[in-house]
Amino acid sequence: MKKKMYALAAFMLSGVVLTAQEVSFEEYDLDNGMHVILHQDNSAPVVTTSVMYHVGAKDEDPSKTGFAHFFEHLLFEGTENIERGEWFKIVTSNGGKNNANTTQDRTYYYEVFPSNNLELGLWMESERLLHPIINQIGVDTQKEVVQEEKRLRVDNQPYGRFQEVIGKMLFKKHPYRWTTIGSLDHLASATLEDFQKFSDTYYVPNNAVLVVAGDIDVAETKKMIDTYFAPIPRGKDIVRNTFKEDPVVPVRETFYDPNIQIPAIFLAYRTPAQTEKDAYVLDMVSSVLSDGKSSRLYKKLVDTKKKALQVFAFSGAQEDYGSYLIGALPLGDNSLDDLITEMDEEIVKLQTTLISERDYQKLQNKFENRFVNSNSSVEGIANSLARNYMLYDDTNLINTEIDIYRSITREDIKAAAIKYLKENERVILEYLPESQKEK
């Protein structure tokens, strides 16, 4: 009887999510190639204006890394009609907030305003695109900002460089081998002309998607978009390189970090592009292994055997390839090899035995909840619409992505663990305190 009630509750929850999460939108193209997506939600007087550019760290010259992230900062410097240093003042004085972020695949800018300031948000983003001022003063200022960010978030952050090291181990040809923040030496040696060329190449309307979500009148919004964005000239078509990696060659390397006292061990695997179903399956694999205190690795290594202070596993799916990491910090005298043995045992269990029906249903409920939360605000909806269009070529994924997770079976989870979590196609990183380095 309990099983029937549990199944009924899960079914009812599924139906609620489908109804609550249906996101309506309209999309079209301007003549200059800019894609536009509109989502109307008049339940609150708030609007998000956002622009996502299809440029990230992977689009950089290997000798000039860090440019995409640098531009995340640089394009707040000012425009022909927004004085230097005034961008944030304009936003906050009009009751708004704004931010930007960069990955290896895209750069995203957005403002959230009271809906009566929609036109202001559109004008500011059109200014960023049409009239940016890229001069030596702005470049020099932002070089200092990025240098300080790298010192705080990477160089002086405990365990702050593991992604940098693992990227070089997993990728030999693809630009994913360097991190988004890139090289400070490359930024320091770059000329003003280098930055201007990067802007002219990638910050063009035909390499961007504009999303307006929230309390809008669609007809009026279209008129504003036509006024501010339609006159912007189309840029040259962008030619992107493609990179095909050879299978991962197993290797074990050591990195010494002066900012830590406790070592860590990382197991890393190369995985498929985020558009492939297996990328979604690997999300579930990582949840089974280390998401929360009921996960397998936490219960085994932290709770029961007390061999680890912390465990983690996560799937980092991206546009071209993904990476899958499993790791732990040892407790006491437990060795890194002990942790590898324990983690491999759990991987083998996933590869040889189906997870239980109860664990499978818990997993489905967890991803239902995540789906609801990701689109619980117009800010989140704007982000999802832009990302789904640009990186997945499927804007309606905002409504259908949960169906992909629902379609994943226990057999799929087992098969993905077998296919991707191979000992002979992984790299191992020993991440050690610098004090352990032989002198």
From TrEMBL:
Q: According to its UniProt record, what is one Pfam family this protein matches?
A: Peptidase_M16
Q: Which UniProt keywords apply?
A: Hydrolase, Metalloprotease, Protease, Signal, Zinc
InterPro entries named among the record's database cross-references: Metalloenz_LuxS/M16 (IPR011249), Pept_M16_N (IPR011765), Peptidase_M16 (IPR050626), Peptidase_M16_C (IPR007863)
What's an example Gene Ontology biological process for this entry?
proteolysis
Where does the record locate the signal sequence feature? 1-19
Coiled coil (UniProt feature): none
UniProt domain Peptidase M16 N-terminal: residue ranges: 36-172
Care to name a GO molecular-function term for this sequence? metallopeptidase activity
Segments forming domain Peptidase M16 C-terminal = 190-366
The UniProt entry's sequence similarity note says: Belongs to the peptidase M16 family.
Q: Under which name does UniProt file this protein?
A: Peptidase M16
